[in-house]
Amino acid sequence: MGRLTQRVNNRVRIIGGAYRGRLLYFPDLPGLRPTPDRVRETLFNWLGQRLDELVCLDVFAGSGALGFEAASRGAARVVMLEQERRAHEALLKNARTLAASGIEVLRRDARSYLARPGEAYDLIFLDPPFASDLLQSTLSLAATRLAPDGRIYAESPAPLAPPGMIVLRQGRAGQSHFCLLEIA
Question: CA 96, CA 99: separation in Å to the nearest integer?
Fold first, then answer.
């Protein structure tokens, strides 16, 4: 019975686009909390539902809810970073199950990846474990990897007002505060 309960609790449904209704399974890990359906719905309403031809980076991919949702909604390319081995393996398995093209799953440390020069992204998702200090330490690094007119989506346990950035939209769901940012 416990095994079935764990499997039911450790899944999230893609809510829109080509993979709408498909389930993603992920391991039970401390700090891993998928972005809820209601928050993802709000975010993609803010973004206009379709992400055609955008290049996206899901920095703390975890369950993959944000990255797979972006791919489902037409993103040309989605790079998912996940350092934890079991979560990384689940992301790879979900990508294979969906037969999703344009998704690259990397087992990398977020700070070191963002600190290196490299590809610019139209949309960066930052949703680290709330018990960590990773959001503050990666937000400014992520800003250096934005394409012109690029945006950052961030989730945190408290409202954000980062220096040098404009909060375009913000909301709250339970204990999560979320916002859409751009460089000032």
Answer: 5
The answer to whether the pTM exceeds 0.85 is yes
Q: Are residues 158 and 177 in contact, defined by beta-carbon separation less than 8 angstroms?
A: yes
**Comparing C-alpha atoms, which of 76, 59, 63, 73 is closest to residue 15?**
73
Nearest in space to 134 (alpha carbons), one of 104, 159, 154, 150? 154
User: pLDDT value at position 3?
Assistant: 41
- Taken in order of first residue, the domains within the chain and their CATH numbers are 2-183 (3.40.50.150)
**How many beta carbons lie within 10 A of that of residue 138, not counting itself?**
23
Would you say 77 and 55 are in contact if contact means Cβ atoms under 8 Å apart? yes
Distances (CA, A) of 74 to 16, 21, 63, 78, 131: 10, 16, 19, 10, 32
Could you read off the pLDDT of 17-39 as tens digits, one per residue? 999 999 998 988 877 877 888 89
- Positive or negative, the CA dihedral 167, 63, 136, 37 is positive
Q: Each residue of 2-11: pLDDT tens digit?
A: 443 344 578 9
What are the DSSP calls for 45-114, one per residue? HHHTS--TT-EEEETT-TT-HHHHHHHHTT-SEEEEE--SHHHHHHHHHHHHHHT-SSEEEE---HHHHH
